[in-house]
Amino acid sequence: MTHLAGGIRAGAIGAVGLLACGVLTACGSDGDSGGKDRKTSSAAASGGGSGNGGTTAVRTAYRKTAEEETARMTLRTETSAAGKSAVARGEGAIDLEDGDSTMTISAGGQKVEQRVVDKVVYQKLPPKQRAQVPGDKPWIKIDLKKAAAEQNSGSSNQINDPAQSASYAKGITDRNTEKVGTGTVDGVKTTRYRVTVDIDKLSGAAALKRQVGPTVPMDVWLDDQGRIRRQQITMNIKPTDQPKGTAAPKKLTVRTLIEFSDFGTEVDPKAPPAGRTTDMTGKR
Question: CA angle, corner 254, sides to 176 and 98, nearest 5?
Fold first, then answer.
């Protein structure tokens, strides 16, 4: 798979960018049974403290946020291993219901234009990176549905599977939800919750647990309407599928911070022409 400066793979950044829409779309129906009614009680919106109120607030937040349909989104992903780290930043807009998005990603002094259309990631590479792609075409594509099927068969790293990320909220229970305070995100007052995702409650738990351990910490910041304004996930990943003969760090730490704003913004990404695109699904 094509690499950006700093050792961050283009496809991996695409998967990180999809983290938000994966969580929102898969967990949108997993909160209260009140359908599309946004006029929930103030207790559910503000979340109360730890325990059932906090758990309900966090789990319901995915539905509430997805109901806004679209938003501006920024992300920051820091990957650390063997005493070195690399940072990728992105900004753009996302359809919170189907996951389509447009984004500009910066890493190692380079910028990549990214579009997500129907769960396919398209990335326009910088000129220096195009020579590494067969056909020297400006765009690469990564079909995440096919990648997920490969991961289910054990042929690639499950931690990059957006379906796994999407189910994180299902691992949140009363005993591991805590209100930790309030704060301001992009000028909006929010309540911050810290949750511990129980990996055993997720699909594919056995393989995922070997990579990240029994739990994954996650913080979310909810506004007074119960919508997600910021989310942070930290994963300590143990590589399990490194090709033979290559040096692999014993542990890889990935911290992803995502923020939402300007709900209702216009989002209408288009797939680039097929003749200008190279399919990199499943390739390194």
Answer: 80
Residue found by looking up tokens 């929102």 in the block: 24
Give the residue from 191, 231, 220 showing the smallest Cα distance to 76.
231
Pairwise CA distance, residues 174 & 131, whole Å: 51
CA neighbor of 88 nearest in space, from 107, 110, 73, 75: 107
pLDDT at 263: 94
101-107 vs 215-222, strand pairing mode: unpaired
Regions of the chain where pLDDT drops below 50 = 1-51, 153-166
Contacts of residue 52, defined as CB under 8 A and 6 or more positions apart, other chains included, come to 174
- Residues 67-88 have pLDDT tens digits of 898 999 998 988 888 888 888 8
Token pair of 69 as six digits:
């349909």
For tokens 């909810």, what's the residue? Answer: 222
Tokens of 227: 């919508």
209 by DSSP, 3-state: which?
helix
Tell me how far apart the alpha carbons of residues 108 and 195 are, in angstroms, rounded to a whole number. 32
E strands in 59-127: 70-81, 84-95, 101-107, 110-117, 120-124
Q: How far apart are CA 161 and CA 142, in angstroms?
A: 12
**pLDDT at res. 189:** 97
pLDDT for the residue 151? 59
